[in-house]
Amino acid sequence: MHSGSRFLRQASSRLLYGFGRSQLHLRPGFTLSILNSSMSNRQDEGLSAFARRMHASGTNLEQHTPNSIFSRIPGSEIPQHKIKHSAKVTVVGVGNVGMACAQTMLSAGLLNELALVDVLEDRLQGELLDLQHSAAFLPRVKIVADTDYGVSADSDICIVTAGARQREGESRIDLLDRNVNLFKKIIPELVRHSPDTILLIVSNPVDILAYVSWKLSGLPPNRVIGSGTNLDSSRLRSLLADKFEVSALNVHGYIIGEHGDNSVPLWSSLSVANVPVLNFHDKKGVQYNKETLEEFHKAVVKSAYEVIRLKGYTSWAIGFSVASIVKSLLRDQMHVHPVSVLANSFYGIDYDVFLSLPAQLGSAGVLGIANLPITEDEAQRLQNSAKILRGMLDKSKMQ
Amino acid sequence: MFTTIPGSDLPYHVKTSSKITVVGVGNVGMACAQTCVTEGLVDELALVDIQADKLRGEMLDLQHAAAFLPRVNIMADSDYAVSEGSDICIVTAGARQREGESRLSLLGRNLSLFKSIIPQLVRYSPDTILLIVSNPVDILTYLSWKISGFPPNRVIGTGTNLDSSRLRFLIADKFDVNAHNVHGYMVGEHGDSSVPLWSTLTIANMPVLSICDKDGVKYSRESLQELHKMVVGGAYEVIKLKGYTSWAIGYSTASLVKSLLRDQRRIHPVSVLAKGFYGIDKDVYLSLPSQLGRAGVLGVASVQMIEEERRKLHESSETIWDIQNQLQI
């Protein structure tokens, strides 16, 4: 069901400046009526403890009007009142990525409790001790570790970094089957010990594994997130920040879709200090059109492969990226991140697949997806991205 | 309360922007670099190493984090020119302890390496502060001081800063308080002969020997020795389990960098030129409670030591002195 023409006109006038005659493609959305009926039926069924915490008067979901900034992911279970939490995070996998995530979260003072889980006992114990030895330099945190998932009980967030890592030259998709079997062991254990948790998947291919985690966990989609293109977008912003000699904080834009070779940069909504970049002419007469901007996108896609080639793996950047997501979740920041979410019903995608969209994050997980207008071309690329990912899922051991 | 180290050269004015160089991009070097960057301590970071690919990879990985950090200029090169104008040069390069290997046995392997590193750092940053992390830290800091020709306030070793913190954590755990409420120092060698100063260790300003822990256990000097053993053994244990230590030393180094760059005038037990203090008459570096600020080591605190602690400190200095003599440093 399409939104009214009033929104279309408003959106067009907002974006016509500097863009020429771009075609706008709107997000066909589920309306609140569909959500309402499914939610009111649910109240009579066995609800999870999480869902039972919803307001007694029922489904006070925000009105989904055509002009709303955010739209709920269908199937979300978002309580009305403040969720109390203890700021406990579990990290599964104490390799370079897992430890970078753990250490960065500690440095940022985000946690009251950190649990580490892995199969390699010695490595796990060593990393635990090394972090505990840092205690005097950090706010008081309880740090625990075990091969037994019991140690992860009652986690607000479970971060999964476990799995085979990309070998040099290997694409993220090639990793897939090696990791699906591993997740069949990990995810049910996490959910068993923390039924109210939010799963944050980092292992690659992240979009596929986030989908796999969602299926294996039975959690509502607002509580399963993949780290997605959060880092890609940040890399893009940094590259452009360097080019324009501004702070990366003043570069606004998203890369969405697959975290990988088929990611989709949204040039149509990219701006520097709120000045649209697309078709911008700089002082030297350089025009930033889709072709010149594509060089930046290519650099972003290549960059992880380059770091892996040079030092064997990536760690620091993904650590910071994950910590920024965790902060938004734990501290209920309502901050928008491009992360891997259940994309069914957005931008013309009408089947189950996880890929990155600009998602508002808070303590209930994914509060909603930004109704960001994108061009026909961008929507096409996104749908291709989705098709490829769905194709992988169909071929994999996960249905 | 504080006594300046003889030979110190303490300037009056300091500049404001901050650059640090980290030599060696192994696990320790990168933990130091990443923690300093995370804590917003630096405007510029230079990485130096001989392994070109690893160096470039680490530089890129940190640069990719740019959007999550305050703006920092991160650069890397095997040429020391990249380190020019550094306020602090952190040296983590060198062979690391193998499982079961003592820090002193690393020494021979690291001597010649430092003879090539230190002059280069001095050449490009004649006003810098050298902060040595590589082990055995006390002897390598002494060596760095000799090679650099710097006044002693500008050559510091990370020393027992981490050991003291480990000790404070263990005690905090036993007494169920925050580690920040445990005040005490380990001095002497960063290693097997380090000296815990029990007589001045306090918890919430109460001497540790006079109070009970959360299980009602009153501590004697003997039972406290168990804690000391755990601290000394702590690093060996981590090395045995994960192959190296990184996170803790990273935080420890960053805390020193903060006190130096931000002129915090804070006391840290770090490796300094100890001759003339507590009756030490040898030219050695070992850890003493030292006040750190922008000009480096502003002075050494006059912490009261009982006879036994003094004696152990002297033994520590003798151990270091013997080895320095054997290797003809």
TrEMBL record, chain A:
<dbReference type="InterPro" id="IPR001236">
    <property type="entry name" value="Lactate/malate_DH_N"/>
</dbReference>
<feature type="domain" description="Lactate/malate dehydrogenase C-terminal">
    <location>
        <begin position="229"/>
        <end position="396"/>
    </location>
</feature>
<dbReference type="GO" id="GO:0006089">
    <property type="term" value="P:lactate metabolic process"/>
</dbReference>
<keyword id="KW-0560">Oxidoreductase</keyword>
<comment type="similarity">
    <text>Belongs to the LDH/MDH superfamily. LDH family.</text>
</comment>
<dbReference type="InterPro" id="IPR015955">
    <property type="entry name" value="Lactate_DH/Glyco_Ohase_4_C"/>
</dbReference>
<keyword id="KW-0520">NAD</keyword>
<feature type="domain" description="Lactate/malate dehydrogenase N-terminal">
    <location>
        <begin position="88"/>
        <end position="226"/>
    </location>
</feature>
<comment type="pathway">
    <text>Fermentation; pyruvate fermentation to lactate; (S)-lactate from pyruvate: step 1/1.</text>
</comment>
<dbReference type="GO" id="GO:0005737">
    <property type="term" value="C:cytoplasm"/>
</dbReference>
<dbReference type="InterPro" id="IPR036291">
    <property type="entry name" value="NAD(P)-bd_dom_sf"/>
</dbReference>
<protein>
    <recommendedName>
        <fullName>L-lactate dehydrogenase</fullName>
        <ecNumber>1.1.1.27</ecNumber>
    </recommendedName>
</protein>
<dbReference type="GO" id="GO:0004459">
    <property type="term" value="F:L-lactate dehydrogenase (NAD+) activity"/>
</dbReference>
<dbReference type="Pfam" id="PF02866">
    <property type="entry name" value="Ldh_1_C"/>
</dbReference>
<dbReference type="InterPro" id="IPR022383">
    <property type="entry name" value="Lactate/malate_DH_C"/>
</dbReference>
<dbReference type="Pfam" id="PF00056">
    <property type="entry name" value="Ldh_1_N"/>
</dbReference>
<dbReference type="InterPro" id="IPR001557">
    <property type="entry name" value="L-lactate/malate_DH"/>
</dbReference>
<dbReference type="InterPro" id="IPR011304">
    <property type="entry name" value="L-lactate_DH"/>
</dbReference>
UniProtKB/TrEMBL annotation, chain B:
<dbReference type="Pfam" id="PF02866">
    <property type="entry name" value="Ldh_1_C"/>
</dbReference>
<dbReference type="InterPro" id="IPR036291">
    <property type="entry name" value="NAD(P)-bd_dom_sf"/>
</dbReference>
<feature type="active site" description="Proton acceptor">
    <location>
        <position position="190"/>
    </location>
</feature>
<dbReference type="InterPro" id="IPR011304">
    <property type="entry name" value="L-lactate_DH"/>
</dbReference>
<dbReference type="InterPro" id="IPR022383">
    <property type="entry name" value="Lactate/malate_DH_C"/>
</dbReference>
<dbReference type="InterPro" id="IPR018177">
    <property type="entry name" value="L-lactate_DH_AS"/>
</dbReference>
<dbReference type="GO" id="GO:0006089">
    <property type="term" value="P:lactate metabolic process"/>
</dbReference>
<dbReference type="GO" id="GO:0005737">
    <property type="term" value="C:cytoplasm"/>
</dbReference>
<protein>
    <recommendedName>
        <fullName>L-lactate dehydrogenase</fullName>
        <ecNumber>1.1.1.27</ecNumber>
    </recommendedName>
</protein>
<dbReference type="GO" id="GO:0004459">
    <property type="term" value="F:L-lactate dehydrogenase (NAD+) activity"/>
</dbReference>
<feature type="domain" description="Lactate/malate dehydrogenase C-terminal">
    <location>
        <begin position="160"/>
        <end position="320"/>
    </location>
</feature>
<dbReference type="Pfam" id="PF00056">
    <property type="entry name" value="Ldh_1_N"/>
</dbReference>
<keyword id="KW-0520">NAD</keyword>
<feature type="binding site">
    <location>
        <position position="49"/>
    </location>
    <ligand>
        <name>NAD(+)</name>
    </ligand>
</feature>
<dbReference type="InterPro" id="IPR001557">
    <property type="entry name" value="L-lactate/malate_DH"/>
</dbReference>
<feature type="binding site">
    <location>
        <begin position="24"/>
        <end position="29"/>
    </location>
    <ligand>
        <name>NAD(+)</name>
    </ligand>
</feature>
<comment type="pathway">
    <text>Fermentation; pyruvate fermentation to lactate; (S)-lactate from pyruvate: step 1/1.</text>
</comment>
<dbReference type="InterPro" id="IPR015955">
    <property type="entry name" value="Lactate_DH/Glyco_Ohase_4_C"/>
</dbReference>
<keyword id="KW-0560">Oxidoreductase</keyword>
<dbReference type="InterPro" id="IPR001236">
    <property type="entry name" value="Lactate/malate_DH_N"/>
</dbReference>
<feature type="domain" description="Lactate/malate dehydrogenase N-terminal">
    <location>
        <begin position="19"/>
        <end position="157"/>
    </location>
</feature>
<feature type="binding site">
    <location>
        <begin position="133"/>
        <end position="135"/>
    </location>
    <ligand>
        <name>NAD(+)</name>
    </ligand>
</feature>
